Hints:
Elements: E1 4-9, H1 13-26, E2 47-54, H2 64-67, E3 89-91, H3 121-131, E4 135-138, H4 145-158, E5 161-164, H5 174-183, E6 186-188, H6 198-211, E7 216-225, H7 228-232, H8 240-251, E8 263-270, E9 277-287, E10 293-303, H9 304-324, E11 329-330, H10 332-338, H11 348-360, H12 363-366
Parallel strand pairs: 1-2, 1-4, 2-3, 4-5, 5-6, 6-11, 7-8
Antiparallel strand pairs: 7-9, 9-10
Helix pairs in contact: 1-9, 3-4, 6-8, 10-11
Amino acid sequence: MDPIKVAILGVGNCASSLVQGVTYYGSNNAPTGLIHETIGGYGPTDIQFVLGIDVDERKVGLDIADAIFAAPNCTAVFAPNIEPTGGKVIMGRVLDGVAGHMESVAADRSFRVSRQTEADKATIIAALKDSGADVLVNYLPVGSIEAVHFYMECALEAGVGVVNCMPVFIASDPEWEARFVAKGLPIVGDDIKAQLGATIVHRALANLFAQRGVPVQHTYQLNTGGNTDFLNMADRARLSSKKESKTEAVQALLAERLADENIHVGPSDYIPWLNDNKLCFLRMEGTLFGDVPMNIEVRLSVEDSPNSAAVSLDAIRCCKLGLDRGMAGALVGPSAFYCKHPAQQFTDDVAARLTDEFIAGDLALAAE
């Protein structure tokens, strides 16, 4: 099979883990840690990284294999010897993709916007076409609304599928989704769920409470971390879509929606020395038989970016499978299983079944 040619938008920690993963699973005979080993015949090593787009001067101009280890990236290095990909990182457009405070923090965490001339739309479209990219993976920072819209326009014009890993709503926005349908292009989105992260654990507990007849009275999910994602989200003005995405992912699994004052889900604080480690503190309060109160508390510690990359790896292959089959618009099952804010929410067991049916080729069931 021909490789899946992937362009990466935002060569940060998540991109680093994804690129490392392709090398790691190419040399590892026991592929543990994958959600699906193959999807439509595509294994992890069938992905080829052909283009990177970034605005940091320490990454622009480098091969993707080198750019993923450049500052301010700080995720775990589990595959240090990455062969050159041949895909270069080109200068993109800044727009609202860099929060103002990101250029004035400690040097090893700050963004350094390249002095190179910013690319216009025609340049980005030409680069996507020339690279032969099948799929564009969007890893832009939270709050980059103008930038995401700019690059989605480019993807539509270049004729590439999209995996939208962040919470600017495209696949779940009817107008944007209709544009992908009109262009005959698939999209998986919006906002990647981690492999075993705060959202999926919170959803599992919410579903468990509902199945066992335990009404939820209050719940919170507090997240802290030290990577540039958490530093970016220190600007609370950039958080509205992220909070909506994470909150709705939990509300969708509750037996009854909670009033806004009884649910809090979202980033809590930036702690530099945590680096790419994410700590989640989760609490749910409910009432048992006889309205007797109970509560559960969970502390979850994960390396944030590999947790995301496992899901992106699957979503990319599903997007390519959609391209191979001539499908267009939001892929229902994969979007629901892999993302926090799909157009259609399902319980995770139903979303998993729909995704497996999609992979198996049962298009009628997968589209229900």
